[in-house]
Structures are given as structure tokens and as C-alpha cells.
Write a structure and sequence with these properties.
With 148 residues, the chain is of the alpha+beta class. The protein has two domains: 5-60, no CATH class; 63-146, no CATH class. Helix content is 45%, strand content 12%. It has helices at 5-8, 12-18, 25-33, 40-59, 62-70, 110-114, 117-129, and strands at 76-82, 100-104, 141-146. Strands 2-1-3 form a three-stranded antiparallel beta sheet, with no helix packed on it. The protein starts with a helix and ends with a strand.
Length: 148
């Protein structure tokens, strides 16, 4: 288990339990040391627990996230993954969509800290407007990767 924060940080053990991990402390220590490997179902639950803990930690300190993303005005690189096309009817599917990379500057304003979804949506519209004819395919994204 290469997620030591799950066993060493506040909330980690609870997040593991919430993800359905019912292993004994000795088993978790063996996973952490690498002397025993979790079953595939447990690996998936550990990964889910890790990302849930990360999301919780980020959301409890949005000001620090904003400062980190601003990088003293140097901007942040993001990846925009288009919405999954598998649910789209074949004649309307756009199989040529690709991951977009953008260097984003000055958008990490107080809307992020205040969770102002309307302003954040306006900012997102400004970002995808730069994608020219593809912009409509990115109004709803599968996910956004932030190179933070």
C-alpha cells in the first residue's frame, strides 16, 4: 500500500473504514511495509479512500489551494478531458476529441474559495472559449487535471 497518508494523517483510518477496509492493524502495517499485498478489491478501496482524503484536505483549506494554483502569477497548467462519448449515439459521436492542455492564469479568484459556482462557471466558459470550434465538446468535461 503506497498511500502512507492513510495511516499517518488525521482522518486516514476513518477514511479507510468508510471505504470498506476492515483489515486488522497488523495487516495494514504489512501492506504499508510491502510485505503483504492487498487483494484487488482492497486496492481499489484504498485508492478511493486516498483520493477521498485528498479531496477532503483540499476542500478544508481552499485559500491554500488558491495560493498554490496562482503560483505568484505564474499560472497553472491544466488538462481538460472531454466528456465520455460512449453514451452518445453513434452518428453523433465525436471520436476525434482529445485531451486539451491549457496554461491558466488569474482565474483562481475568490470564487474558488467562496464556492461561487456561477462565477466559476463563467470562468470555465472563458477558458473553453479559447478552444475555437471544439468549445462545445468541453462545456461538460469528464475531468480536469490540474498540474499543481
Amino acid at each position: 500500500m503506497r498511500r502512507p497518508s492513510l495511516t499517518t494523517t488525521k482522518g486516514g483510518p476513518q477514511v479507510l473504514a468508510d471505504a470498506g477496509i476492515r483489515a486488522t492493524p497488523a495487516t495494514i502495517r504489512a501492506w504499508t511495509r510491502g510485505t503483504q499485498r492487498p487483494r484487488p478489491a482492497n486496492l481499489e478501496a484504498i485508492d478511493t479512500a486516498y483520493w477521498n482524503l485528498r479531496a477532503h484536505n483540499v476542500l478544508t483549506s481552499p485559500g491554500a489551494l488558491k495560493q498554490h494554483l496562482n503560483r505568484n502569477g505564474r499560472s497553472t497548467r491544466i488538462e481538460i478531458h472531454p466528456v465520455n462519448q460512449t453514451a452518445v449515439d453513434e452518428p453523433r459521436r465525436r471520436d476525434n476529441l482529445r485531451i486539451q492542455h491549457r496554461q491558466i492564469r488569474y482565474i483562481w479568484d475568490d470564487a474558488l474559495v467562496a464556492s461561487d459556482l456561477d462565477t466559476m462557471e463563467d470562468l470555465w466558459d472563458d477558458i473553453i472559449a479559447e478552444l475555437d470550434s471544439d468549445w462545445g465538446a468541453y462545456t461538460c468535461a469528464s475531468y480536469i487535471g490540474i498540474g499543481a
